[in-house]
Each structure stands twice: as C-alpha cells, then as structure tokens.
Amino acid sequence: MLLNFLKIFFLFAVPSFAFAQTVTLEVRAFAQGFYSHTTSSMIAVVDPINHPNLCDTATIVLIDSSSGHGIYCERTVFSTQGYGYTTLPSQYFNNSYLIGVHFRNTLNIVSLNNILLDSANKSVDLTIPAHVCCSYDSTYGVATAYSGDVDRNGSIDNYDMLLIYNDNLIFASGYLDTDLNGDASVDAMDITLIYNNKSLFLFDNFPFVCMQTGVKENNSFSAEINTFPNPFTEKFNLSLPETHQNIKLVLTDIAGKIHYSNSYQSRQRLVIETGILDPGIYFLRVIADEKEAIVKLISF
Known about the structure:
- This protein is 15% helix and 40% strand.
- The N and C termini lie far apart (72 Å).
- It is globular.
- By secondary structure, the chain is of the alpha+beta class.
C-alpha cells in the first residue's frame, strides 16, 4: 500500500514542482492621448522616423487582487499596435493576478479578472472594454488608459493641468511627460485633453506600488536629473539633485537590450562611459535609494 501511495504522490505532486517555469506575458494596451481612431493604433512617439512601429515605453504590473498592491513591475517597450512583453520569473507561474499597465502620463488600466499564469506564454488584451475594470476611455470603441496623470500621483488634477499650462507658455517641445498626445510639443490639444479628463475627477483604483522592490516611479525625480551632453558619444555626465547612498544605473536600447549596468554608493555626480554604441535612442533607468526614473538619451 505504501508503494502505491508513493507512486500516486510522485505522479501528481512532483510535476507541480518540475514544471514551474518562466512566463512570457504579452499585454496589449493603448494610451488615450497616443491612440488614433483613424488607424486603430497608437502613433510612433519615441522616434517616428527611425522606429515608426514603436510607440513608447510603459510599465506592466502584476497586482495582488486581495491587497491591491503591485508585486512585480517591469518597464518595457510597447509597439504602435499596443503590444508589450515581459518575462515573469518562475515564482509567478501557476498563480493568478490582475494585470495592469500605465504609460508615462496615464492612469493605470487594469484587467477585470485575475489572469492565471498557467503556461509558458500568456496574452492579455486590455484594449477590449469587457476585459477591463475601473476607469478607462472608450470613446472610439476600444479601451484606452486615461492620459493626464503627469506627476504620477494616481489622479488627474489641478497640478497636472498647471504643469501642462506652464510648458505650453514656454513653448516646450521634445520627449516630455506634459505632451499628452505624443506630438513632441505641449500645445492646445494637450490642454484640451487635460481639461476634459480633469473634469471627470479620475483617479487610480490601484496605486501600483511594487512591494517586491519598494521602488516607485517618480517623474518629479526624473525632471531633476541632468544628463549632458545629450546626444552623446561614448560617455555622458549624470547629475542627481542630491547625494544618494545607493545608486543603480541600467542603460538599454529600445529593444530592451542592456548596454551598461553599474552600482554606486554615496554619489551625486557621475561620468558614465558606455563605449561605442550604435546611433539611436537609449533609456537610462536610475534607481537612487527609494526613487526611480527613466531618462531618454540619444547616441550618435
């Protein structure tokens, strides 16, 4: 009888451990300001000339539905068709989570139900209104994440409007959080969008604070980071607003490939030597103590 029990145990119990694996998660999501109903896709925001199929970066989050906390976050590239990918560690395999996404100036868009991560490849489509919970815009029949949370505090409010108004007054242009529609300028269209969304009293139902790392994205911190020269060749200077005890830097290209990674202690100013890089756009992830920012750089 003991032998039969062991056979049954190994038949059913062992595979649950043996088959734990990483999960490649495909998430589709749209940002309201970047979405064009005429093409049913988002516009190319980062580099329309050299990368016409790339929209922007966004953060994919696994959310524990019982606590509402994000337990895993990864910032990744999203295509103009709305597709982004992340590879989840094996510890998340065969567990269920809500799946959320936020772009650089949007509220979060979150799946209506928990998604069971029970296979090596999993897909979630957050552009279908029936698949999404909480706040989302569906003006054109698809779900899009509301644009306007410029300071990433979980609501679209007067302060977000003030930031956009101020950039509009100085004719600000470029890759800016205040550019809601992704046309590289802060103009009347951005003001109209923020005004309309602010009047709806929108806020996030999930705060997306990742308990796993304790690090939260901070766009005000990003604005205080100075990198020069930019564009750069082989090296650039990084200046932080104050001295931080623990600093982690990761430089990736638009495909997510890491080209530089290093850690520093008790520093405020750094000279980063990357060596020769292919001309193009790169993203520098800066983690300084409990703050995090993404800085766009151009190599030539």
